[in-house]
Specification:
Elements (H helix, E strand, L loop, with lengths): L1 E5 L8 E5 L9 E10 L2 H8 L15 E9 L11 E5 L8 E5 L4 E2 L6 H21 L7 E4 L5 H12 L3 E6 L2 H10 L3 E4 L5 H8 L5 E6 L6 H6 L1 E9 L12 H7 L2 E4 L7 H20 L7 E6 L3 H9 L6 E5 L3
Helix pairs in contact: 2-3, 2-8
Keywords: NADP, Oxidoreductase
Protein name: NAD(P)H-quinone oxidoreductase
InterPro entries: ADH-like_C, ADH-like_N, ER, GroES-like_sf, NAD(P)-bd_dom_sf, Quinone_OxRdtase_PIG3
């Protein structure tokens, strides 16, 4: 089969399309003929040599796929050849075939195509887990979502609004402000031109927010804590700009703040299956009837993966960037 591989670490020059052995499904694995996969920041970090693939997982990039069932391992029951499925995988998505754990597989709703399903896979699981399981989001609360125009960010904003909460978000351009406002965000803040702390406190009349969803990391820690209400919660979803920061412990203690972290790929499979089950129970019916439409920036063929990476590196995307795989 054809697959994208990184031959060394670095820029676009290390990205190659090669013929590699097709994976063989055993145990609880499905072999999926990939029709679409989607980009994540971790793919770019892996290419650069910063992100190291967990032991035992595929070094082929790509952690979410949509396609059709081709074959399965001896422990799998209930699937049929040609069935349309999507889900989060342990690497291997940038390829014509990929292994998908049967308990991580979700049936693609009739209303969604492969591109939309690929765009929904990882972002939906991460958004649900961080907002509701870690963040404890309830109707009527207020949430600040950083990187609001990202694939996960656009999903979070929709989930927040769907449950009757207030969504504030930060983005990096006026175009993204407009896009997130159209998506339903109550407040979209251009962090390059506005002080998000001042804007949040003004828009919340000095109260702050119940929950902060942060993709930035160390550089934002102090400011994120400053906009939290008493007993508010900060969830670290990513570390794009710093893995270390000073922490004002007195502020945390006095205001009884919570600080939590999340990483789906590093969790054992048994926990990933639980994450998947929680998303399925809470959101699959909503997704199937069009109540949580994936926001898609654009799609590129697998052969144009370098161009797709460049689009993400330039931070031009609003929503997910998808790679399509010719059958």
């Amino acid at each position: 089969m054809r697959a994208v591989v990184f031959e060394g670490s670095g820029g676009p020059e290390v990205v190659k399309l090669r013929d590699v052995p097709r994976p063989v499904p055993v145990g609880n694995a499905l072999l999926v003929r990939v029709h679409a996969t989607a980009l994540n920041r971790a793919d770019l970090l892996q290419r650069a040599g910063i992100y190291h693939v967990p032991e035992g997982q595929s070094v082929i990039p790509g952690v979410e796929v949509a396609g059709t069932v081709e074959a399965w391992g001896e422990d799998v029951k209930g699937f049929t050849r040609g069935q349309r499925v999507f889900g989060v995988v342990e690497g291997g998505g940038y390829a014509e075939f990929c292994l998908l754990d049967a308990d991580m597989a979700l049936i693609i709703p009739e209303a969604l195509g492969f591109v939309e399903a690929a765009a929904a896979a990882e972002s939906c699981l991460t958004a649900n887990e961080t907002l509701f399981e870690l963040g404890g989001l309830k109707p009527g609360q207020t949430v600040l979502v950083h990187a609001g125009a990202s694939g996960i960010g656009t999903t979070m904003v929709q989930m927040v609004k769907h449950v009757g909460a207030t969504a504030l978000c930060t983005v990096g351009t006026p175009q993204k402000v407009e896009a997130l406002t159209r998506l339903g965000a109550d407040v979209a803040i251009d962090y390059r031109r506005q002080d998000f702390v001042a804007e949040v406190m003004e828009r919340t009349r000095g109260e702050g927010v119940d929950l902060v969803m942060d993709f930035v990391g160390g550089a934002y820690l102090s400011r994120n804590l400053s906009v939290l209400k008493h007993e508010g919660c900060l969830v670290l979803v990513g570390l794009l700009d710093g893995m270390a920061a000073e922490l004002d412990l007195l502020r945390v203690v006095q205001r009884r703040l919570q600080l939590k972290g999340s990483s789906l790929r590093l969790r054992p499979m048994v926990e990933k299956r639980q994450v998947n089950a929680r998303f399925r129970q809470r959101w699959m019916e909503v997704l199937a009837r069009g109540g949580l439409p994936p926001v898609i920036h654009g799609s590129w063929p697998l052969e144009a993966v370098v161009e797709a990476h460049a689009e993400m590196e330039a931070n031009r995307n609003i929503g997910k960037i998808v790679l399509t795989v010719a059958p």
